Amino acid sequence: MSAKDPFRPADDDARALARKLIAEARYGALAVLREGAPFVTRIALAPGPDGLPVTLISDLAPHTAALRALPDCSLLVGEPGPKGDPLTHPRLTLQARAVFATRPADRIALRDHYLDHQPKAQLYADFADFHFVRLVPHSGHLNGGFGQAFRLTAEDLGA
């Protein structure tokens, strides 16, 4: 006996909600593999010029070394609302690949865009040990609330 698949195919409403969650996310939970074990940390985020998540991370952070060793990661966005069960509020889990901005032109473009959304990062954005990283999704799982679970492709997410 096989279990019924709880995920629906993406529709326009699911795509729009997923993109909204990314656009509004200023923090997220990033999961990486560190020394062979799962490691989760909170990171600051901004939507990049292309609508995909961007973060600014330091070489001092353990997740930076983990992403350099294995760029595959997962990102959870979506905050609980002020009332009700936190599990009834929409959230999006992305399976992604971390892409470090290494070209000066890419770094400048991401820097300006990121600082528009995270102005306090101005204090450290230009430190040599900080790097802008695009989190390019290859799939996603959207939980839009009770009975509203969707599988999303990279194309659904605008990647």
UniProtKB/TrEMBL annotation:
The protein's name: Pyridoxamine 5'-phosphate oxidase putative domain-containing protein
Species name: Rhodovulum kholense
